[in-house]
Amino acid sequence: MFDLLKGLEECWSSGRPAVLATIIDTQGSTYRGVGAQCLILEDGRIIGTVSGGCVEGDIYEHAREVMQSGVPRTLQYDFRGSGDLLWGLGVGCNGSLTIWLAPFHPATYPAQAKQLLQVMRLHAASPRSFSIMTVIQSSDAAALPPGTLVALGHDREEGGALHGWGEIAERAAQYRAAGRSGLAWIDLSGSGGKTIRVQCFIHTVRRVPRLVIFGAGPDAIPLVRGAKLLQWHVTVVDHRPAFAATDRFPDADEIIVAPVGTVPPLDVDEETNVVIMTHHFEQDQLFLAEMLTRTIAYLGILGPRARTEKLLEKIESNRKAIGLHPLKMKAFHSPVGLDIGAETPEEIAFSILSEMICARTRRSGMPLRLRKGPIHERTGDLFSSVPLKESV
């Protein structure tokens, strides 16, 4: 996400065109799911991926035409059956993709480019989940052209007004509640009571995952690097100014020096991951006591189980407050990380981050070769409907 935004910002500053490609529908087995995006630049570079590299070359050829015309379009790739291997791109993924190509041309179409850039800025900085609605097809392109963007469920509604668009807002809320993105057909009331039938892509934008690390020791350095590789927002907290320093954590989004015996005010919620690893018993105890009172996605503590038990013995009041032994809480992980035999700080970091991903996606972390059925659940749209007769 941040790489895409950086690319758009650079194009906006230089006036160079680009195209943002988004998967708006899938059928069968595909490498990426609905909502995956990549940015195609004028010089042929591609930031991100929508297929693992299978179709990006072909997408670039279509993107060049979109850059020149300024008109968005949809692409469809069907890899099912042997025909693809013989005459197509040779992917053999046994699935199909529908991709939306949105032009970004600051020099020729500055208003449209600014609209897309503003929505993507919201995507990167939003403190909570919201939706981006894109008009894909419209029965009245003059009144509501394809490519129209609206941010829904956000304090700042970028891209347009929502007069009479209550149904879109309601469906977007349903998609957010289900953690889904997808297509929907909706009838809108235009001027003079005219009905405009539109196909919308409703993209559910989740808040960027957040990681708070209590402890700025050497083992926290690869954990920060790994989290930033995942494009998470990272906060590092420590009581030692020499450790909690930007030269040691140049990638961290926030570094906080908290005096011994204090817990700094932190914006943590049900989408925040927390790891306690100060290697200081009293500090670990302090942070653990505070985090046990919060509703967070993941709470891990570095060290053997026996040490954690000693920490918990000092926090009896919190046990009573939550009404459940912390070691039995789903969000509580001690010892922290997956059992991969990790020993080095780098291996431990991968172990911890992998367990956080498992907790977020509700997956087991077992080898994929042991999984029965598809790797990803590619389910259909929440809202079934009939497309327009005209092909747009």
From TrEMBL:
What residues does the XdhC Rossmann domain cover? 211-356
Recorded coiled-coil stretches: none
Tell me where on the tree of life, at the top rank, the source sits.
Bacteria
UniProt domain XdhC- CoxI: residue ranges? 11-78
What Gene3D superfamilies does the record tag this protein with?
NAD(P)-binding Rossmann-like Domain
Name assigned to this protein: XdhC family protein
